[in-house]
# Entry
Amino acid sequence: MNEQATTRPDDPVRPAPSLDVLLTAEVFDGEPGCIAQARALADRFLTRLVAEWLAVLGDHTRSDLMLAVSELITNADRYSHGPYMLELEGNAQRISVTVYDSSTALPVLYSPDPARLGGHGMEIVVALCDRVTAERVPVGKRIRAEFELST
# Structure
């Protein structure tokens, strides 16, 4: 990936997201259990989004989002040196999963290759969500996966 947004070719131009969102974030230190804790945070977030914002999750939205969280947190844990942060933001129209970590190296998006061992994390994230962006920020990098919800 580079510092540009990665979207599907048929992706229509979207209006600016609403500033009125449900937001939660947590910092992880890489200790054992961080991936499970991140998934639990995402699960609680989705439960609140459905209950408080009346968000309608598609048949696969919860499992797709949980897998994206697992892949992004695993990459942050594996490739950064230091703590990393998971931020979840959403409303009835969309959800974003953002991970900040201390590495400035942007993720590599390989071509699909079932024979390759490893390196499938970003391939999976791109396949699951509607839009992925990766960019360098002062603390290292930020990767954001966005999901459009059914209305």
